[in-house]
Amino acid sequence: MAEDSEISLVDSPDAASSAPDLTPKRLRRWFRYRLTRLGFHFLFVALFAMVGGAIRGFNLLLVLAGLLVGVMLIQWRSSRRVIHCGDVTRRTPLEIFADRRFTLRYLVQNRSRFLPMWMVKVEDEMEDLSWPSEDSIARLASAVGFIAPQSTTIATCRCLITRRGRYRFGTPVISTTFPFSLLEARQTVERPLEVMVYPALLTLRVNWQRQLPRAQRGQNVDTSRSSGGDGTFFGIREWQNGDSPRWIHWRTTARLGEPAVRQFEQNVRRRICLLVDAMSDDPMATGASAVENAISLAATMVCEMVGRGNTVCCGVSGASPRLVASQHGVASRTEILQMLADTTVVDRHQANDALQAAVEMVARRLGNRFDLVVLSPRSINNVLATDDASQQDERKSDGTYRNSLRSLLGDWKRRHKLAWVDVTSDTWNQMVVSPDAEPVSNRSGPSRSGPSRSGPSRSDADRTSPGVVNGFGATQ
């Protein structure tokens, strides 16, 4: 049995996935009813008693058949009434990062004035749009034990997505078999939703900024005093002439009997442009690779530097070169993370052309006002040698001349504003904590802005599909 209905409601998903749309939308709902295995057995016994009583003339069998049919009618009427009064709304987190567990919330509402809802199951599905495959759809499930009349209960589902990209949630389904588990009543609500999963965040070392271009006072940086209250707290030291009384740490002063002041790290506000060389030998590979490490490193550096007085721009040299500028705000940070999450890598034959187009875009829009940090899965010598050979071939074939990468990057290099980070070299280990290493205390690392890859390992038994791991739970 199935029923269709349309109800005009407002569906406004969270801002993490798309901007709320306050215009009324017509949500389609499907109601379906089917017998469970126990219901089939129950119905068989009822038909057997009815036929046997009619043939043999046994009144007790007819009475028993009537009771069984009555129970089936009560089950159908109760389930139908309850499922028509239910509703479910999905709530996603504001930010979802790969390799980081997050909680999906389902708001299950009981609109009935008198009837409570019991044993409600919530089902959902998630589809990977960036890496489509045969098993790119994961099934999610949660449950609620009791919902009072005219109230809302939250069902939660713990999920883990291991790959960045664009994902789509399907239509949530609520179902119940209460009270006798003879019939399952299901309601499907047409609420599709697309979300963006940001790249995985890494754990940076304390001195990771040493790999960036040297900060020179008055050139692309602004500095503040190391003992000022605007910096990051570093420690306690003895009093010195010229220190402000506002910096005195009175508890330590009382314990030592002499003045002690708080010391702060020097804040350096940079103007920096991160450029990701999105090159991969196998662009269709879905596992971890050097280019994914470069993208994750860029996302981690953006989370570290945006919002702390820095001006950060980020570009990618993938299938379509893009550049996003930051203006100290969370909105621009989100725009950069979305760009990194939706980056399409290119193969080795197209990598140099894409990188040159991205560098030209940066030079045209930013000039030399920003430091340039290139995050690449290959060394700079390899890139320049390949570009020089390609340029010589073009001269021999058609006699044309174009600007080489060497000349484009030379302007930043002469001003000491260029840093090339090869994620396959030792520079990676100097910036990022290895997943197998012990956690590092990091005052400036992403511990306050995101997770690390050094969390507990996951077994294959915990996976429901490559890319998504879901849990089960409900709160009231």
Overall pLDDT level = 79
**CATH fold assignment of the largest domain:** Immunoglobulin-like
Rg, Å, rounded: 31 Å
In CATH terms, the superfamily of the largest domain is: Immunoglobulins
Main sheet record: 9 strands, mixed
The DSSP helix count reads: 9
Low-confidence runs of at least 5 consecutive residues: 5-24, 223-229, 437-476
How many domains is the backbone divided into? Answer: 3
Span from first to last CA? 31 Å
If classified by CATH, what would the architecture of the largest domain be?
Answer: Sandwich
Helix content: 25-40%
- CATH top level of the largest domain is Mainly Beta
Percentage beta strand: 25-35%
Shape: elongated
Give a description of the structure.
It is a single chain. The protein is built from 9 helices and 22 strands. 28% of the residues lie in helices and 30% in strands. The chain is an alpha+beta fold. 32% of the residues are buried. Strand 6 and strand 7 form a beta hairpin. It has 3 domains: 203 residues, Immunoglobulins (Immunoglobulin-like); 198 residues, Rossmann fold (3-Layer(aba) Sandwich); 40 residues, no CATH class. Helix 1 runs antiparallel to helix 2 and helix 4 packs antiparallel against helix 5. Strands 1, 2, 4, 6, 7, 9, 10, 11 and 12 form a 9-stranded mixed beta sheet that branches. It starts with a strand and ends with a strand. The protein is elongated, with a radius of gyration of 31 Å.
List the topology elements.
Layout: E1 2-9, E2 25-35, H1 37-56, H2 59-84, E3 86-91, E4 96-97, E5 102-110, E6 117-128, E7 137-147, E8 151-161, E9 165-169, E10 173-176, E11 183-189, E12 193-198, E13 221-223, E14 233-238, H3 250-256, E15 260-264, E16 268-276, H4 290-305, E17 311-316, E18 322-325, H5 330-341, H6 348-366, E19 371-376, H7 380-398, H8 405-414, E20 418-422, H9 426-431, E21 468-470, E22 473-474
Parallel strand pairs: 4-12, 16-17, 16-19, 19-20
Antiparallel strand pairs: 1-2, 2-11, 3-5, 5-8, 6-7, 6-9, 6-10, 8-21, 8-22, 9-12, 10-11, 13-16, 14-15, 17-18
Transmembrane segments: 35-51
Protein name: DUF58 domain-containing protein
Domain DUF58: 236-376
